[in-house]
Amino acid sequence: xxxxxxxxxxxxxxxxxxxxxxxxxxxxxxxxxxxxxxxxxxxxxxxxxxxxxxxxxxxxxxxxxxxxxxxxxxxxxxxxxxxxxxxxxxxxxxxxxxxxxxxxxxxxxxxxxxxxxxxxxxxxxxxxxxxxxxxxxxxxxxxxxxxxxxxxxxxxxxxxxxxxxxxxxxxxxxxxxxxxxxxx
Length: 184
Fold this sequence. Notes:
Elements: E1 4-9, H1 15-27, E2 31-36, E3 42-44, E4 50-52, E5 55-56, H2 57-60, E6 67-70, H3 76-80, H4 83-94, E7 98-102, H5 106-111, E8 139-142, E9 145-148, H6 154-165, H7 168-177
Parallel strand pairs: 1-2, 1-6, 2-5, 6-7, 7-9
Antiparallel strand pairs: 3-4, 8-9
């Protein structure tokens, strides 16, 4: 049975942080569902690129996935205020499912109480609220939580998520197929 991932889009999401994981996970055989937290399927990112989600968040949350992935971007404030997102993070943590957050999205992990006592990284703009972020690594894996710094680390982030959902060989194969010479 194929592994599954839910990627939640919000108005103002960072396009590279969503599209790279969608693409890489699908190349690796993961069944990816893209959900809109808005009340419409088409979601506009920070650079005015619109992406059509597979379904709305309420519908997507009726199912459980192996991974919940949050892209960052200036619209993360909407994710932080969304009880559905925070409740899903809490549930995924309790169930030991994979949680992945990049850029400013680790702020949602903070709001859900998942950051204290663990290593993580995030975008430098989050320093005020996440002063303990690891600035030395582009991707930090701690148990079932993967965090990453931003758009420039989106490919490494996506490959790390893929490796956790499958194995390193699958991630290496996908990295080679996209001509990435040094995946991690």
